[in-house]
């Protein structure tokens, strides 16, 4: 029996922070001040690391504006990375990439459930002994984790095998992961325990506080991962023998509702609504493929989705308190000054943008551009960083902080943390993000159907994409598995309303001061490299195209002497649409048949 959860894991203006009240004026015991008895408050030369990972938290819907404690303890005391991206906008593939430092096409974990993803696929790919906690233990760290690890990590397979690399753990398990008032946790190698009737984030807070106390008593540096399910939808699911292959089955097998806040927060933000940005429920279709066929949402949809939005904000208040409680304990234990605190999420979220019902899985900014905040020794305080960073960079960053060696097979590189590092990175760091997705897209809202064709699950949502950002340009380029193309110039179209490659959109003659097709050829060649890159090629893809090293960015690649070279290259395309990473469906590959041999022809002539 296997778990089929189409269980969907799961411009920023930091303006006035919204104050909130608690109905009884008290926080639950889990958030009280720590006792200092028995805690040594050790201080080593190597730092401790606390890592918060929320589920489906947005950046572009302004959720950070509603979290005053995170603002106080993390944003004001650390650096907010404004251009941070996940590389696959759904939770299990994103979490695996975060913990391995590899793109999903290199982990081959591309879905939330088998056969293409989930905890069983993570194990079968050999990753249970090749990810961050293993490397940290090898470096002399104690490792702790509580909350959601991966999808399809269930009450039936949690011990087949146990997740490796943790000195102590207490995992949320499917099919109860997204049940806010009926969570099941599994501690170390003990049987699962149900917490019916208690709010899952309050339970998590107690477990996180306990692990922190244990870590503080030790004499080694520690890593503590804390992964609340908020603000993911509340989902009632079940265990099934057979996969869902009929979209009509989904409503029968899975019950989606808005997230459920703790009782003390359920009255907050009564007037909050989804931000009415230009791409919110637009009057004309946008995007490509199935997105362009979406109907405009009705008033009934809009009202329900505003309620959905408020429930997300309310549910995040427990996370706000959780973060504050951990920071206060670190200070009480004498550990705060020697601890790095990371705060991020697995993927972003949309509600109404481009007429989309609540969900993720798309390549739009709402889904891939996500919060990352870092606080710690030497981290610039109150900084908003503009450099490009991704989830693939987090494992290299943490290993560097731990004094552990980097790995040759990392697809990312360490994130600059100090002001001097950020200043250097402004001119030296790469400017691209590789975005990829396989399989379905899903609506997690109520879906007030007006037409039999309004399906909750869309099965042709496979695409490869590229984000490239500098002071001069800001572009998104994508190729879908049906070989439709997208290109947005976010300098002039920040809400991605006008796909410059759609037949109904007038195509400009020039872009970035050169002929339009010339830019397009460079973007396609870059994506050709990145869609199957490995290791350092993922960080320095222009080096693969120009091995002499005289091209480091898009602007340099636009030099006219390279025009013949780019005219000759294979183009990104798919052979067919698939629900997972199947190589013969992926079209031509760079290493197998792409650009290398053609380089020799043109390089001697044009370099």
Keywords:
607 residues; alpha/beta; Alkaline Phosphatase, subunit A; 2 domains; four-stranded antiparallel sheet; 20 strands; disordered N terminus; disordered C terminus; EC 3.1.6.1
Describe the structure.
Residues 1-19 form the signal peptide. Belongs to the sulfatase family. Residues 47-404 form the Sulfatase N-terminal domain. This protein is of the alpha/beta class and 607 residues long. It folds into two domains: 44-429, 3-Layer(aba) Sandwich (Alkaline Phosphatase, subunit A); 436-449 and 460-606, no CATH class. It is 27% helix and 16% strand. The protein has helices spanning 68-75, 91-100, 104-107, 118-124, 132-138, 200-217, 250-253, 299-332, 365-368, 394-401, 419-428, 516-530, 536-539, 541-545, 554-557, 563-567, 590-593, 596-606, and strands at 48-54, 79-85, 142-147, 168-172, 182-187, 193-196, 222-227, 234-236, 255-257, 339-345, 372-375, 383-390, 432-437, 441-442, 457-458, 463-469, 474-480, 485-489, 510-511, 514-515. The strands form five sheets. Strands 6-5-4-3-7-1-10-11-2-12 form a ten-stranded mixed β-sheet, with helices on both faces. A hairpin with a 4-residue loop joins strand 17 (474-480) and strand 18. Helix 1 crosses helix 8 and helix 6 packs parallel to helix 8 (299-332). The radius of gyration is 23 Å and the shape is globular. The model is unreliable at 1-43 and 594-607 (pLDDT under 50).
